[in-house]
Amino acid sequence: MKLVRYRTPDGITTGLLDGEEITALEGLSVVELLILSPADRAARVDAARGATVPLADAELTAPVEQPGKFLALGFNFADHAGEQPDMSNQTVVDLYETVRLTRAAYPSPKLPTIFNKQTSSICGPFDPVLMPEDSELLDYEGELVIVIGAHGRRLSPGQALSIVGGYTVTNDISVRDWQWDTPTTWPGKSFDTHGPIGPCVVTADALDLSDLAIRTWVNGELRQDSSTAAMVLDVATIVSTISQICSLQPGDLIATGTPGGIGTPTANWLKVGDVMRVEVEGIGVIENTVVAEDALGPSLPEGEWSLSRS
């Protein structure tokens, strides 16, 4: 089952995506549906079916509204962790030296690299992405995202999948100088609009994660081409590990890491006008255009997060 949120003249509505059509699900939210068992979910969907609109006529928004957490993993693909920097570019060399020193300080970590993106970074699957006024080191990271569908704490790997409600796609937009100016990394991961998600949430019962393609294009050029089969830690391990630290709640998001092919090693930074396209097989595509920070004015589209700028 593919669940979406889309904007109509009456506001934002939850819908069921089926091919090229969306059926409105009156009075329901995506997270409410993820909490249910597959049988109960199907029954609720059937009872709530409303008008149908063509997908081409719908304005999709972020499928999960205001999650409690937006967590993410770093270095969960070996080819990304091993990317070699262009030693002729001093900015790249300096960034990678910071990464090296940070990782060297923790030679035998008990935990994978976990950080958070502030939830105010979330935007829709086709919304514009802001180029910061104070950095040119903007980068992309195509990723699979886990959407939590039930409360869970201190779960074993064998229990962890029971609280996964579904999956979506993100582009973990990263401002590299802000990211590596602090060992927590979150400032460079959390700029407004730097967490597009969508286009839908595919329920966990409808997706086999064993070998799904993950691809990213910039201006039509394929930059990342990998698979969920190449993830260092699988979904069960990721969810179990994080649940040892904090309770996971319905609607929480966990980005599972990006494969090799990011722009940083070669200083191939994003520019205003660049179009980023991220696809996870079985879920769909998000596509976002980089715009100058002033282009969106003082706020994001109505119904989404607001920007607050001095």
UniProtKB/TrEMBL annotation:
- Which EC number(s) are documented for this chain? 4.3.2.3
Instruction: Extract the InterPro entries matched here.
Output: FAH, Fumarylacetoacetase-like_C, Fumarylacetoacetase_C_sf, Rv2993c-like_N
Entry annotated with the keyword Lyase: yes
Q: Which Gene3D superfamilies match?
A: Fumarylacetoacetase-like, C-terminal domain
Alphabetically ordered keywords of this record: Lyase, Metal-binding
* Domain Rv2993c-like N-terminal span(s) in chain numbering: 1-63
Which Pfam families does the protein's record reference?
Answer: FAA_hydrolase (PF01557), Rv2993c-like_N (PF10370)
Q: Name one GO molecular function term.
A: metal ion binding
Q: Which GO terms describe its biological process?
A: small molecule metabolic process
Ranges for domain Fumarylacetoacetase-like C-terminal come to 71-291
| PANTHER family for this protein | FUMARYLACETOACETATE HYDROLASE DOMAIN-CONTAINING PROTEIN 2A (PTHR42796:SF4), FUMARYLACETOACETATE HYDROLASE DOMAIN-CONTAINING PROTEIN 2A-RELATED (PTHR42796)
Which family does the similarity line name? Belongs to the FAH family.
**What's the name of the protein?**
Ureidoglycolate lyase
Taxonomic classification: Bacteria, Bacillati, Actinomycetota, Thermoleophilia, Solirubrobacterales
